[in-house]
Design goal:
The chain contains four helices and no strands. By secondary structure, it is mainly alpha-helical. The structure holds protoporphyrin IX containing FE.
Amino acid sequence: MRLLTALSLSSLTVLFSLIFIGGYVSASGVGLTCPDWPLCPQGLMPHDDFIIEYIHRSVAAATGLLIIAMMAFTLKSRESPRGMKIASIIAGAAVIGQITLGAVVIVERLHALLVTAHLALGIVLFSMVLLTLMYAYRIEDKRPVAPRAQ
Ligand code: HEM
């Protein structure tokens, strides 16, 4: 598997898990168990009192790094078409926006409009990473297959 395919597939997988965890944070009402930003009350140490929110933030950090790496390698690659570059730039901007918005959601004590915007931006982000992955698969399909050694 090529680096770009691997990066976009792992970004999409981790992002999907993050959206799932985010839904759980929201539905179970634990969104303010970690009221500080950027770290929880015990710094980098997790604690039972805010473990779900702690996981949401940690996975968000990992997702951010993966998506920024995906964008950087897409922009660097000579094979990536224009549409793929645009999709990865939007994904990079959306992940930074989403992490910033996550902080604002906390500071504004879960304002309904902000939580809704957080969900909506998550959908835009997911679509752009999916699009990047589809382009990556298309590049792989077009590559000539190396002849097998007899
Ligand atoms: C790529 C990064 C992120 C993604 C994709 C993401 C996604 C989501 C999603 C889909 C939800 C559920 C929203 C709903 O059901 O209405 C959610 C909830 C939440 N997220 Fe994030 N999130 C990210 C980063 C962050 C960060 C960095 C924070 C910072 C603290 C954060 C704080 C929250 C909180 C507090 C909730 C629960 C809101 C509530 O109780 O209704 N998120 N997130």
